Amino acid sequence: MMFQSTKVGIIGLGYVGLSLVKSLCDKGYRVLGVDVDRDRVEGLLASKTPNESISSSDLERFISADLLHATTDPALLQDVETVIIAVPTPLSEDGEADYRFLVNACELISNHLKADALLINESTSHPGTLRDLIAPIIIKSRSDKAKDIKFACSPERVNPGDLKFTHANTPRVVSGLDDAACHRVRDFYSDFVGDVFLASTPEVAEMSKLLENSFRLVNISFINEISDYCLAKGIPVREVIAAASTKPFGFMPFYPGAGVGGHCIPVDPVYLIESAKAQGCELPLLNGALKSNEERHNSIISHIGKELEGFKGKSVLLIGVAYKSNVSDTRETPANRIFEGLRKAGADVHWHDPLVSSWNESQSTDLNSRKWDAALVLTVHKETDISELLSHSKVVFDSTGVVPKSGDKVKLV
Fold first, then answer.
1. Pairing label, strands 315-319, 374-377
2. Could you say which architecture CATH assigns to the domain 7-199?
3. Which whole number is the average pLDDT over 176-200?
4. Annotated catalytic residue: which of 153, 230, 264, 281?
């Protein structure tokens, strides 16, 4: 069943929403993007991209071909057959699951949905979100009790900055609250995704996303601990990983770094932990991994402090404050804790990131603006000038393992 040229509504025009815009418009879908941020909407209509998930030229091409329209008015959804919720599910200031964006999105669109619309949730949350949160909000607010609306989910699998894995070649897990919803959501994604897995219930689909990212958090936290041990013993941890990777079964390599960041890996496990707690179930291993990641900055700062014999009067430059390579996203970046920790230790801290112009109420510093006592490499982009970094730093501490060795000048952390 082909859905090309059918109008699709996307609620939330951030990384996930705009990556969907690109994939759908490239397939010939007409897309209506809805966002409460008027500045973002106006920027998109002027073909100005807010992030790496879509280019300005793509926006211009889609808009001129009448394939894309962005708006703050949810009333325009009334004739849209398929509506996708792609809003953030972040953590609150207290580090707890924050459902405000998801609840607000449901309340915003509930009375503007077509009577027989397919409503798909892509926002990550706990198992039961579609059945126990989204559907009740929509049903309660509508005079027809949403009797013909089909509720489905397909947790997003966007990997910002990844040019290899796209919507087309990244398998998707889908499900719905009834058979009709399951069939419609499977047919919809099958038109622009190569491999679609139909889960028996929405809870299976929702849980699969939390398992994916909790698995990564546990293993990254574990390899960071192993890295600290190897550093103390003088053992090159990346060579250890390479040696272990020669085993053709039972081992999967993970690599140490400054800690995980972004909108998924450090966030999704919190939704799982809170849901488990509500069921009277404890997840001590996952809790430990989360705490280990939150404290990763302490071991890095401690090691650098010993090498520099203290931070007082020392200038330290952080390289890369985005949470991963080749993106400008600083959400949940481990650079936050490292920056504050170095300052508290007495260092004169600055930062440089060729993709981030403003962060922590300050601006990116030129690499060659002065001679740095130390540089700490957290993230390396294609645009990062390693040669300038090496020539303007007395010593470089590398948490990525990608900076070329330069005698005793480059030290791994």
1. parallel
2. 3-Layer(aba) Sandwich (3.40)
3. 98
4. 264
Average confidence (pLDDT) over 315-326: 97
- Partnered with residue 375 across adjacent β-strands are 317, 396
Q: Hey, which CATH number is domain 201-294, 3.40.1280.10, 3.30.1120.10, 3.40.50.720, 2.20.25.90? A: 3.40.50.720
Question: 0.70 cut: is pTM over it?
Answer: yes
Give the gyration radius of the chain's Cα atoms. Answer: 23
How far out from the chain centre does Cα 321 lie? 15
CB contact at 8 A, 107 and 134: no
264 in catalytic set: yes
pLDDT (average), residues 379-407: 94
Q: How many angstroms separate the Cα of 287 from the Cα of each of 209, 222, 225, 229?
A: 17, 13, 15, 21
How distant, in Å, are the alpha carbons of 121, 338, 363 from that of 318?
A: 37, 9, 12
Question: Which CATH entry fits the domain spanning 296-413: 3.40.1650.10, 3.40.50.720, 1.20.1050.10, 3.40.630.10?
Answer: 3.40.50.720
